[in-house]
Design goal:
This protein is mainly beta. 11% of the residues lie in helices and 41% in strands. The strands form ten sheets. The chain has a seven-stranded antiparallel sheet, sandwiched between helices. Strands 1-6-5-4-3 form a five-stranded antiparallel sheet. A hairpin with a 2-residue loop joins strand 8 and strand 9. It is globular and about 90 Å long. The N and C termini lie far apart (72 Å).
Length: 611
């Protein structure tokens, strides 16, 4: 009898414990009140006109950095629409006034990761996965202007979200989801979360698993790449109804990259880049692996043109020579095709195409913005107030133009080790006496890189007999009158030379930039150190600012007033710092002109950077 009572008591205890655990899991661990960090806005926002800044120098209107979350969703992506700038990352959504950068609304979930997001009309939809329990999924629909939650659903799987942007296809008020077996597509309303349509994919096909960019959409078209027996297929749908419009067969192999630009569908499968019209006709194609690992930058220009930046297969010398072309989307005729830098991103607004180049010119520090005339492809370049390293992870370089502003996003290595994405809103800058290609600085203000070290200073650093190579540069039609780089290469090392000397290691002194004022130069030096894997501030160089870059003590970047110089000397140990001190002293001794003043106020403008 006693054993029965004991057993009954144990069973009751187990049942009570299970019930308590279920209650705790549902009402505490699974509760919204402690998981969600949510702010909303009731402030109206002005819709921006579809126009970018005027041609000429650019200045920072506002900027913000978003730290990259470690893990699979370690990226940050941006969009500008409805007068707002949206930042989406593994941490959640951050929405700001696109004109001022002021915070509007945000949404984050503790213990959850944002794995995909979509935008259509006045709705934003975000998909989250529970950390450590990827099968636990939740989709949340928002009013894009206020941030108010409209609906929630559990279990949905976003269809083919892009790896670099976390963006998943949506259009006409519908977001695209998929069954767990990737064989069925669903259209879910972004307004109320209800399922609107269902479409099985063709027999023998599935959505690609974990592809880089196997789907895309605009408000009127959804394009999805399918993994089928015998090769990939491209399926194009009407997002409102789920009706198939057309499909095409692509090359077998890895998942193709897909993009939709103004109704034109682009597919790059490693053998060619193809552009298809709204009805599925092939408008144009470029043979070869012209897009590399992702999709070529492309933007619609006007009502009947598509501008595409691509890189043809290497020539006999093994080098890729990038190009940019405009295609008539009615006839498929190539209007123009020009040599170009390897553009990282394109944007179009108000009849102007903007292109982001990693370097304004070879050996110079800032990235460049090219203003491309859509009629004939002629280009005018201006410097950007940031540094771009396309090889960094964390954010795909991105451009957008609206409301007289140009928005650019670039990756940064700092804060280390995960890095960050930096969003910069640029407006038209003040007129200055020099050419726009140099940010308004007269070419005569640039010092001679080969005059920054004297023979005595080279001898004091034990530089042996050497040859000197001078490098000059031009930005568009503007040529700098003096060398911007000086390379000192030791001659054949003499016999019995002391160990730890120069050997065959060259010394490089390069003037990377001369800014209109010290504040702008400081911002650019900070941008340089932020894209380095390692950077250490040095206060013993005698410059206004200095950083030692890289794992080894062989590169020093320094600023004196508005001039930024980089000294590279890997041997002997400590030579870079000693020579940087000499360069800093020489720059201070030079009789350089005063900073260019604002034409109306007479005061130098700075480029402050806020985090």
């Amino acid at each position: 009898m006693g054993r029965r009572r004991l057993l009954a008591g144990l069973l009751a205890l187990v049942a009570a414990t299970a019930a308590t655990a279920a209650v705790v899991n549902r009402f505490v661990l699974g509760a919204e009140w402690w998981q969600v960090r949510h702010t909303v806005s009731d402030t109206p926002v002005a819709v921006q006109r579809p126009v970018g800044p005027p041609p000429g120098p650019l200045a920072v209107s506002w900027e913000r950095s978003e730290r990259v979350r470690p893990g699979a969703a370690g990226t940050v992506a941006y969009a500008v629409a409805l007068g707002q700038a949206v930042a989406a990352s593994g941490r959640g959504l951050d929405v700001r006034d696109a004109r001022t950068g002021a915070a509007r609304w945000s949404y984050r979930r503790v213990g959850w990761t944002l794995v995909a997001w979509a935008s259509t009309g006045t709705r934003i939809v975000a998909a989250f996965e529970s950390d450590g329990h990827r099968a636990d999924r939740q989709t949340v629909g928002f009013d894009a202007l206020s941030g108010g939650v409209l609906w929630r659903r559990t279990g949905d799987r976003p269809a083919s979200a892009a790896r670099a942007t976390l963006r998943w296809p949506a259009g006409s008020g519908i977001v695209l989801t998929a069954a767990d077996d990737r064989a069925t597509l669903y259209g879910r309303s972004a307004a109320d979360g209800e399922r609107r349509w269902r479409l099985p994919v063709p027999a023998g096909c599935r959505l690609f698993a974990d592809a880089a960019q196997a789907a895309d959409a605009d408000e009127s078209t959804i394009a999805v790449a399918l993994d089928c027996a015998g090769g990939a297929r491209l399926l194009v749908l009407d997002p409102a109804t789920g009706r198939e419009r057309w499909r095409r067969t692509l090359a077998a192999g890895e998942a193709p990259a897909v993009a939709v630009r103004g109704g034109t569908v682009l597919a790059a499968d490693g053998t060619a880049l193809r552009a298809f019209s709204v009805d599925g006709a092939e408008l144009a194609h470029w043979d070869g692996d012209v897009c590399g690992d992702g999709m070529c930058p492309a933007v619609p220009s006007g009502r009947d043109a598509l501008v595409v930046a691509y890189q043809p297969d290497p020539g006999e010398d093994g080098a890729r020579r990038a190009r940019i072309a405009a295609v008539d989307t009615r006839s498929g005729r190539v209007r123009w095709d020009r040599a170009a830098p390897a553009y990282a991103a394109l944007a179009a607004a108000g009849g102007t195409v903007y292109a982001l180049r990693p370097r304004l010119a070879d050996a110079l520090l800032p990235a460049g913005i090219d203003v491309v005339a859509p009629g004939d492809g002629t280009v005018r370049s201006v410097p950007a107030p940031f540094v771009l390293d396309p090889a960094l992870d964390g954010a795909r370089p991105w451009l957008a133009a609206a409301g007289g502003l140009l928005y650019a996003a670039v990756p940064e290595a700092a804060p280390r080790p995960t890095g960050a994405a930096r969003l910069v809103a640029l407006r038209g800058g003040p007129d200055r006496p020099g050419p726009p290609e140099l940010g308004g600085v007269p070419p005569r203000d640039w010092p001679d890189a080969c005059a920054l070290l004297t023979k005595a200073e080279l001898a004091a650093a034990r530089m042996p007999a050497h040859t000197t190579a001078r490098k000059r540069v031009a930005v568009g039609a503007v040529k700098l009158p003096r060398p911007i780089s000086c390379v000192y290469t030791p001659d054949e090392p003499r016999r019995n030379a002391p160990a730890g000397g120069w050997g065959e290691s060259p010394l490089v002194v390069s003037v990377r930039w001369v800014a209109p004022d010290g504040g702008a130069a400081s911002g650019l030096l900070d941008a340089l150190q932020s894209v380095q894997a390692q950077a250490r501030r040095r206060g013993d160089v005698g410059a206004d600012e200095a950083y030692e870059l890289g794992a080894m003590t062989g590169t020093v970047a320094l600023r004196v007033d508005r001039t930024v110089v980089v000294v590279q000397a890997s041997r002997p140990q400590g030579a870079a710092v000693r020579l940087a001190r000499a360069v800093a002293a020489r720059l201070r001794a030079l009789d350089t002109p005063k900073p260019s003043a604002h034409p109306t106020t007479g005061t130098a403008l700075t480029n402050p950077r806020t985090r």
